[in-house]
């Protein structure tokens, strides 16, 4: 993304009609390789991703940030309540398994977002990722209470330190 791209806006490409093109200062960038507006860098970030026969479009929150987990970046393929296919990108190491949901820190701000498991189309892929925290041991209810209380107050104790080591990814 260029420095002044925030001045532009999402649009349907005026030439090929595909959604998720970008218009800025009278110029359109399109992810469609067959289109005269095609832009390679734009495609890398914004092209829809196919899962089976379905295309998922990237969610653009309109926010900017520097959160980038590099090699730990993964996509969450998600069907919204409105029946639209969207994908989010986040840090696989921050996935938390919470009953009917998973939550993860997402780009570009690092904000934590919850996803309904039944709507995540690549749940098995995320679960089986070697860096996924699905494999981490989960604190018991009593341990969570200690971790939460100290994290919130910014205090510590020998028990807290032991639990921090046992659950390094707990936030
Ligand atoms: Zn186009």
Q: Could you provide a short overview of the structure?
A:
With 171 residues, this protein is α+β, with helices and mostly antiparallel strands. It has 4 helices and 10 strands; from the N terminus they run E-E-E-H-E-E-E-E-E-E-E-H-H-H. The structure holds zinc ion.
Going across the biggest sheet, name each strand in turn. 4-5-7-6
N- to C-terminal distance? 31 Å
Query: Could you tell me which ligands this complex binds, including any ions or cofactors?
Result: zinc ion
Mean pLDDT: 88
Shape estimate: elongated
Question: Which structural class do you get from the secondary structure elements?
Answer: alpha+beta
What string, H for helix and E for strand, traces the elements in order? EEEHEEEEEEEHHH
pLDDT < 50 stretches: none
Enumerate how many helices there are, as a single number: 4
Percent in strands: 25-35%
Major beta-sheet overview: 4 strands, mixed
Helix content: 10-25%
Q: Count of DSSP E strands?
A: 10
Structural domain tally: 3
Specify Rg, calculated over alpha carbons: 20 Å
